What we know:
By secondary structure, this protein is α/β, with parallel strands linked by helices. Helix content is 55%, strand content 14%.
Amino acid sequence: MSVYVGIDVHRKRSQIAVVDHDGTVQVNRNVPNGVETVLEVIGDLPIGTPVAFEAAFGWGWLVELLEDYGYDPHLVHPLQCKAIASARLKNDKVDAATLGQLLRGDLLPEAWIAPLDVRQQRALLRHRAQLVRLRTRLRNRIHAVLADLGHDRAGGFCTAPGRAWLAELPLPDASRRVVDDLLAVMDGLQPPIDALDKQLNAQARGDPRVAALTQLPGVGTLTALMIVAEVGDVSRFPSARQLASWAGLTPTVRNSDRTVHHGHISKQGSPWLRWIMCEAAQTAKRHPLFAPAYQEMARRRGKKIATTAVARKLLARAYHVLRELHDQQTTPHRRAAAHRPTPTATHSG
């Protein structure tokens, strides 16, 4: 008998519902998160049982648990799961049972579950980006302290001459303490950032995807690594527009009868891919490939919208680069399989 499992995952506890092939809820229990507690509920179910859960906070451990014990995990797209979002009666028991029912009816809006190595690479790149963002915020805070006292320096204060200039400034005691503390934290961030850069650059060497992407305007090694990690398996996107939509770089559309309204970009999808493409577009918009279109759109719609349009076009080019490499790598395997001789049955007597 086929069974289906829906799990409403939370930080400390999860609600687990088991639904049979007729839609009857056999079990609906709330348990603490952990291997043993989850297996107490689903451990006796057949190998290969499908399990659905939402992309909530901290779901990675659940994927590893399900894969290790032979279950079939299905990650639910939370924004597209309208049956849960619009339910009048909404609690953990209802949500878990609804996930199981949607899985049973093959109506589940699924999201791609990235392999562990891809998730780890994403974590590394996002960690570096967050450290750099923190360093930038600290630097901006120092600028704010100096501006409040009427001090400024065109060349900044991060270089050796800038640090010397900053050390000689006649600052009040409190301001001097703030500046010195912020500089100390900035200096403490530099070693881990440098170590991450060294590790990531070593990983980039020998990766044909990174080498190909760095030929695009505005795309350096770290940018290419983040594109590769965030996109993952490029074959899951049938077109460049699908990838741009997943990155939240396509405009929203409101269509009723013959009236069509196009709005700003949706910003629904991967925020990290959208961010890195917009960062790359800051440089790419000055390249001859994009400069004419950028300048024309900036004149009509403004620089911000024009830069976003360049980011979308740049992502489309990145998609075609990755897709071409993917097709080149899979074609030899297909040819080998096509030419592999088919075993013939032998009869005795």
